[in-house]
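Reminder: ligand-aware prediction takes two inputs, not one.
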Amino acid sequence: MKIAIIGGGPAGLMAAETAVQGGAQVELYDAMASVGRKFLLAGKGGLNLTHSEPPEAFLARYGPRQNKLAPIVRSFGPDAVREWAQQLGVTTFVGTSGRIFPTDLKSAPLLRAWLRRLRKAGVQFHVRHRWRGWDGQGQLQFSTPQGTRSILVDAVVLALGGGSWPKLGSDAAWIPILEERRVPVKPLQPANCGFDVKWTDHFRTKFAGHPVKSVGVVAKTVDDIVIRLRGEFIITDTGVEGGVIYSVSAALRDVIAAKGVATLQLDLAPDREVKRLIKDLSQPRGKRTMATHLERRAGVAGVKAGLLREVLSKEEFADPVRLAAAIKALPLRLVATRPIEEAISTAGGVKFEGLDERLMFRRLPGVFGAGEMLDWEAPTGGYLLTACLATGHAAGVGALTWLNEGRNTSQ
Ligand SMILES: Cc1cc2nc3c(=O)[nH]c(=O)nc-3n(C[C@H](O)[C@H](O)[C@H](O)COP(=O)(O)OP(=O)(O)OC[C@H]3O[C@@H](n4cnc5c(N)ncnc54)[C@H](O)[C@@H]3O)c2cc1C
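Here is what comes back for the chain with flavin-adenine dinucleotide:
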């Protein structure tokens, strides 16, 4: 039995591994000149493979899709991910936040070892093969440097990724191909993304690139559910991005879509109480500048003081009560999400009602889907890669099971 895997990201590679271990002849196709480019990029900032929190908390990170993903992630969850890395000779460790990383934090050694093992197991790689859909005979169509290739296989796993960082290969060109076959697809949206804030030129010039460390943030969902988190983020030329912003980005994105603007409330001194701040800031400042007074009395300086000046009027800044209130709850107006091209991941994709429980497209017998191209989202923390690997595993098992049941046409 011949299975084609299209897309050589973590989801497709895991589907290939599962299929080849199950005895299939596996051909893996990717549009790019090499596979796993986004996986390699993910290793640049420290590859966060998975998370050590208890299963219920872990699954809750998939929000409205947790029920759909639960059986899949239970079959191949955080322990399986660690075991898989271990078998590839890569040890992992649990960081202080509970996140799990390879000991060297990198993805390149892991990918190299994985590709070696896959090749040894018999997986054939075909790079520079851009999938274009099917021809009238149900053959897969690929554009290659040598021209169009048509291939007939017994089953297919599509693992074509979402739409972020399209220059790494995932450009979402699969959407019209599948929609033409009446596969239901929810439009892609940025997830784990930055936001635009209308900074003044003065603030942008002075603070773009600066990290804002140890802040509390409060965001509201469209249903007015309050999310409170603590962390850090970065000021950019156009707004804000990074850590804690990504964690609340799904809620903020949905509020912007519904209302045109979202407010992110910042607590610039999360370890101090407002009463104490009022008392301290009300002390006479003598000949000291306001900046020195703010730093000495409230521990607020640099970019944090800049944010206060950016949002408050001169009168508010000079009034200890209003200044203290703003330090604890500074409203930042977010006017737009950054484009999908810049996002860490995407929300939307093939809807689960278009798939059966083994991830086969209901409208395309013998064709399975896996990874970020499916309609789920999750914050950063290793949840993305875990779900990609788990759905890749499930799609590989699904294709094997389907073929072993005796169905052998992909269209
Ligand atoms: C900067 C950054 C950092 C990240 N860090 C982390 C992290 O630390 N932890 C974490 O869990 N997640 C992280 N992620 C997210 C994670 O990398 C992705 O969720 C994951 O790579 C998605 O896997 P996938 O296999 O579904 O798709 P992809 O990795 O996007 O792979 C899809 C593949 O399909 C190929 N393809 C697409 N269309 C076609 C076509 N028509 N024909 C042939 N081939 C095609 C592409 O070339 C690509 O190789 C990060 C993402 C980014 C951008």
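The chain is about 35% helix and 25% strand. The longest helix spans residues 383-404. We will return to this case in the review session.
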